[in-house]
Each structure stands twice: as C-alpha cells, then as structure tokens.
Amino acid sequence: MSSESAAQNPSLVWPEEEDHSEHLLLDPRPVEEMHGILLDAMQRTGRGFWILVSFLGSLVLIGLVGAWGFQIRWGMGVAGIRRPVFWGLYITNFVFWIGISHSGTFISAILRIFKAEFRRPITRASELMTTFSLLVAGMYPLIHLGRTWRFYWMVPYPNQRQLWPNFHSPLMWDMLAIFTYLIGSTLYLFLPLIPDLAMARDHTKGWRQKLYRIFSLGWRGTEAEWHHLKLAITIFAFAIVPVMFSVHTIVSWDFGMTMKVGWSSSIFGPYFVTGAIFSGVSAVITVLLLVRKSMKLDYFLRAEHFDSLGKLILVFSFAWTYFFFADYLTEWYGGEAVGQQLLTLQARGPVAPLWYLMLVCNIAIPWLTLWNRRVRRSTVGLFVVTLGVNVGMYIERYIIVTGFLTRNRLPFDWGVYNPTIVEVLISIGSLSAFILFYALASRIIPLVPVWEVREGQISHTLRRIGRAMVPSVADLD
Amino acid sequence: MSAATGEHDWTMIIDLDRCTGCQACVVACHAENNIATVGEEEVIRGHAMHWIHIERYWEGEYPHVRARFLPVLCQQCERAPCEPVCPVFATYHSVDEHLNIQVYNRCIGTRYCANNCPYIARVFNWFNPYVPEPLNEQLNPDVTVRSRGIMEKCTFCVQRIRRVEETAAAEDRPIHEGEVQPACAQSCPTQAILFGDRLDTESRVANLTGSRRAFRLLEELGTEPAVIYLKGGETYVE
C-alpha cells in the first residue's frame, strides 16, 4: 500500500493521504453540534469566572472611581504632568486604545471585502474588541480634561453660551471621528450578530431567551432577510474602512498639526494607522488565544487562523518599521537642534531603555520568530510575541507623547515626566474595564459567527481529481 | 498719543541690556493678577505658575561664566499657535487690540494650547488656589480668581488697559504715552520693560520697534510676537 512507501520516503505521499480536516472550512460538523459548542461556552460561568470578574471589578472601582474621583476632587496636579509636559499617560492611553480599536474593523471589514476565508470564525471576537476599546479610549479625553464636568462644551448643540465649538481644533475632528467610528463599528458589530442572536434565542430559556428575542429583531432566516442583511453588511464593510483610516489619522493630527518639533510631521498619519493595525491585530491574537483556552473553542479557532494572523503581524511589523525608519531618518538628516536632542533623548536619554525595548518588541522579536510556521502555530510563542508587540507599541506612544514634550526649542523649557500612582491606577482600571467588558460580553454574545462559518463550510468542498482530493471554493457572489 | 477707542497695537519692549534678573516683575505679576502661589514642594513638582518667568542661561566655562537673563511671558502672538487648537474658543484673538485673549469661563482644560506654545508661556491651575486669611484681602478685585483645571497666561494686564481706555473715553481725551503700565513694567527697577501702543507713532515703543537691536523670540516660527526684545552687547540671545 501507499502508506508503506510513504514511510520509506516521505516525499512520496500521495495527495489523497493529505489530511484536510485541520481546516475548519473542510471539517464540517452537524449544525446543532456547532451551536452546542458555542452555547455551552457562553453559559459556562464557573467559580474562576466570577473570581476574575470581581477582581477586575475592584480594579475598575479603584482606578476609575477612586483614583479618578480623587483627581477630579483635587485637580490635575495629582497626576505627574507638569510644565512643560502638559500631556501625559492619559493621552498615551488614549492613543493606545484607539489603536487597539483598529483590530476589529481591519480584520472584519477589510478581510471580508477581500474574501480572506480565514476571517470567518474570528470576525465577531475582534469586532467586539473594537467597540470596547473605543469605549475605554473615549473615557480618556474626559479623564484628561482639567474640568471634566464641563466636557459637554465640546459638543455642538445650541446653547445658552451662544457658542459653537471651534472646528479648527484637531480635538474637535477627533471627537467627531471617534463618535462616527463608535456608532459605525457598533452597528457593524450588531448586523452580522442578528442571525446568531436568533440562533441563541431558539436554543436558550429564561432571561437569555428574553434578551435574545429583543435583540434578534424577530429574525426568521427567510431569503429576503438574508438578502437585506448581506447588502447591509457589504455597505457597512465598505463604509467603515475609510472611517477607520480617518480615526487614527486624526488622532495623529492632534500631534501632527502642532508646532512641536518631533510632532509636526506629515508622515504621522500613515505611521499611526500602521502602528494601530499592528498593535490591534496583535491584541486580537492575544485575546483569541485566551478565548480559545478559557472557552474551549478549539473547534472554531484553529492553528491555521493563528498562522494567517501571525503572517499579518509580520507584514505589519515590516510596514511599521518602514514608517519608523522614514520618520527617524528625516529627523536625523534635518539636523535641526531640537530634533537632534529628541534623537539623543531616545538613544541615550532617560527614555533610552524603553526605546530599545520598543525596538526589540516591535522589530527584533517579530522578525526573528514569525517567519517560522511552528511559532505562528504555537499558543505560548504567539502569545508572548503579540503581547510584546503591544508593550512595544505602548512604549512608542509613551515616548512620542511624553518624551517629545520634554524637549523644547528654548533649553530653559526642558523637563522631565514621571507618572504618579493616580495615573497608573487609572490606567490599570481602564485596562481592567476592557477585560471585564469583554469577559462579561463573552458570556452573552456568541463569540463566533456560526452562520458565517457554515457559509464557508458549504462553499468549500473536496473534489476528487484523478487520485488527488483537491479543495475547491464556490464563490458566493 | 493714541485714541481712547478703536484699534491699538499693544507692544512690549524688553531691553535685555537692562535686565538684571531680579524677578521683581515676577512678584508684581503674581500680586496684580491673583496668581496662585503653590509652595516649594509643588514648584519642585513643576507646578509653579509664573506668568512671566526669567530664563537664566549660563555661558562660558568656570570661572569665566556669565549669567544671561531672558524674561519670557506670553508673546501675544499675532499668529498665535495656541488659538486654533482650542476646541472651545477659550483662547482667541482680539483683532482690534492685537491681543491674545484667554477666557477662563470657557476653558475646559485640554491643555492643547500649552503644548502648542513654542515659548511654554502658558500656565495651568493644577489645584485650586490656596489663599489663607488675611491674604484674601489683597486679591485684586479687577481680576478673576481661577479655579483648578483652567489654563491661564499673561494678559498684558488687560484690566489696566481697559481701565485707562474707559477713563480716557469718559474724559473724551486720547490715551497718553505711558498711561497704560502692566505690573511688570511698573515694577522693573531698571526700566527694562516698556509698554505702549505701536500705532502711536510718537511713542517710545514705536521708535524702539525699529531699533537695530530689536528681535523677536523664535522669530523664524512666524508667530509674530508683540513682545520685542532689544539685544545688548552682552545679553545677546539668538
């Protein structure tokens, strides 16, 4: 038999021996079983889950109620910001979380438009990250405000002060872009969710059923409903992509539009967008690995998906490095005195250890590991690499926001910045809030779009051509 | 002499040859404008709130060192970088008076303006001001006391400008040369600081504006400051 010859010479494996069942789309199971896997995972709330929830909940209370309340009561002076570093950890966190929010839309909308099949089981989990990270990011401008209780003065509405906001200010562009993105991405999360909510409605009892009944909007799965849903998803997928690009571009313009040396750079728009997708997709991998482990979704989330995402990370690491290098080289050759000081600050100054750590996390580690298929398919390896990328990206924002503010044109205006415990507690609180939201939502929202997976499984078949089994894909449109 | 109403181009001349770095202007400014004093600890934490500060630069190698003093305050830029970035119009331009106005009531404390000021001349209220009895009695009634979370900066003592304008208008006469004196100019023992209306072509300010020694701070940025420095043989800052 052929297995004998294969044992003697591995290169002589007949194609029919190849195991296709490692591919989710070529490994279909009965639909009820797939529903069962998902619904079991959603309803499994053991003691560990509640311990995690209460632990995160207390961190949220300490950071976002305690520390933030303390800061509102006494003033911004309790934070480490000082002359001339008027923006600190809060703006760093803001940029970081906006960056994380680029994960969902990128994976879901762009990969959907380009029909990348590996997206199917992971779209929901990443879209959910977009919504929650935007909520966390949206808190930071409020935390950052000197008079938080007057935040609504930035909202354009006819008011007693007879004053519109200043639309020349990049902060106004920012607010509009973020609101648009939040609304758009939440709707984009909701639309593909409707069939899954209807599925959950049909398989659950009690409060869950009531909840799903409301939000599934009476979905029955008729041909017309599917047609409308597909159309709406397509429209949103195309519409949300430019919004995504605009959001982080405008965030970068908060810096790019100023007169600050180091900030005033025309490359900041694409540089920040690339960095955002880099860190966002890394965060998706980190979260998906945790979700797969804790919710036992090994059937849906497979090595092949992490393999493809790992390649994306490598590509975006290249892209980020390109922009980083272009920005750095321009500053270097420009030769302006303050610009040179910024380079010195990074290479030998107080932020140097962080700067080198950033280069290791964002360039060295991804480049040295992710070309390797075994690393891309290993849980621990990929977890460490993607977590590292987000450490590196956080440092990048930290240096750009707080580091660059310490060097100014007049040497008298140089300064230092060290975050205080208040800023650190608020940062930890917001991170905990994100994880908490996600953990709670993972027990309510079906984290895998079963209908999309099934759609893929129906369109993928194995066909026999001669002696070989060849996977074939039917294009749906 | 300049008309009581209408357009003024308020200008400050700072003669670096005369500045001794005595900081009298800093103290006078604090007293006139109800600026909070924050104490030693907060000053070390970078929370000092001087609207005008004396930048001291050392030059040369020991023992041949020389101190140079550069008083820096809000430059009242004609094209101010702080203005367009404010989302709530808390900082805006008075076209008639060529002043850079800060409206405390509108400020929500984004601190964007402070970051975009190349002179780092803006001051933030990190905490509520601490004014123990009986020091509250010496607060200037013409100037708002600012609460925490608000941006502020040198106003060219706009309350004094207003008072002189109103007095002159009531008496139906023009404003005399030197009638408007900001606290810093008034208190400067060497008269290094001069203040006046550049549109009054007879004034000393207008004459000195064209001086060979005149320069503006970070002039190359194109912010067009209304503060003009006179460089001296020794106190020359580029």
What is the number of beta strands of chain A?
Answer: 2
Please tell me the total number of domains of chain B.
1
Poorly predicted runs of chain A: 1-7
Sheet of most strands of chain A: 2 strands, antiparallel
* Beta-strand share of residues of chain B: 15-25%
Q: Class of chain B in CATH?
A: Alpha Beta
Supply the CATH architecture of chain B: 2-Layer Sandwich
Number of helices of chain B: 7
Oligomer: heterodimer
Beta-strand content estimate of chain A: under 5%
What about the largest sheet of chain B? Answer: 4 strands, mixed
What is the CATH level 1 assignment of chain A? Answer: Mainly Alpha
Task: Report, as a whole number of angstroms, the end-to-end distance of chain A.
Answer: 43 Å
The CATH superfamily of chain A is identified as: Formate dehydrogenase/DMSO reductase domain
Radius of gyration of chain B: 18 Å
State the order of secondary-structure elements of chain A, H for helix, E for strand.
HHHHHHHHHHHHHHHHHHEE
Search tags:
heterodimer, A: 477 residues, mainly alpha, Formate dehydrogenase/DMSO reductase fold, two-stranded antiparallel sheet, 68% helix, disordered N terminus, B: 238 residues, Alpha-Beta Plaits, 4-stranded mixed β-sheet
Please summarize what this structure is.
The complex is a heterodimer of chains A (477) and B (238). Chain A has one domain: Up-down Bundle (Formate dehydrogenase/DMSO reductase fold), CATH 1.20.1630.10.
Structural commentary:
The complex is a heterodimer of chains A (477) and B (238). With 477 residues, chain A is mainly α. In chain A, helix 10 (223-256) packs across helix 11 (268-295) and helix 11 packs antiparallel against helix 12. Chain A has a single domain (2-473), classed as Formate dehydrogenase/DMSO reductase domain (Formate dehydrogenase/DMSO reductase fold, Up-down Bundle). Chain A is globular. In chain A, a hairpin with a 2-residue loop joins strand 1 (460-465) and strand 2. Chain A is built from 18 helices and 2 strands. Chain B has 238 residues and is of the alpha+beta class. Chain B has a single domain (10-230), classed as Alpha-Beta Plaits, CATH 3.30.70.20. Chain B is 20% helix and 18% strand. In chain B, the strands form 4 sheets. Chain B has a 4-stranded mixed β-sheet. Chain B is globular and about 45 Å long.
